[in-house]
Amino acid sequence: MDRWSSRVPWISWGLLAAVATLLALSALWVAFEPAGDETSEAASTIARQRGVLGFLGAGLGLLAAIVSAIPFRRGERWAWYALWLFPLAIGAVAARMLIDQFPLWSYYGLLAVLAIAALLIPVRRFVRPPG
């Protein structure tokens, strides 16, 4: 098997990298969103936590984009398994937003669905039948 035949289709890794980039950008928006006039201690604490969570989300998105663009693109099996954490985390965020009736749940839900689709496109390459 030559070097090129082991690569993952561009639609799979490209879609996953795009979803990861969108997540990173939206998380940065959360991190840098103006806090407004935070007068109470509780509101100030929540604003700081929102910033920390935004940076964590941006880091997850950047990591997923790098893993999908390099090792996953090359067809490395560990990357495919590791990247399943990405749509699970986004899906959990979407589910929590839906429970809290936060209107952006559908955006994160769509990102999770797209990430799952991107991981399922090359599924036969990574999951081999026993034997």
Give an overview of the whole structure.
The chain is an all-alpha fold and 131 residues long. The protein has one domain (10-123). It is built from seven helices and no strands. It has helices at 10-32, 41-69, 71-74, 77-83, 85-99, 105-120, 123-126. Helix 1 packs antiparallel against helix 6 (105-120) and helix 5 runs antiparallel to helix 6. It is elongated and about 60 Å long.
Largest sheet: none
Order of helices and strands: HHHHHHH
Average pLDDT = 89
Tell me what portion of residues adopts beta-strand conformation. under 5%
Number of domains: 1
Output the number of helix runs: 7
Shape: elongated
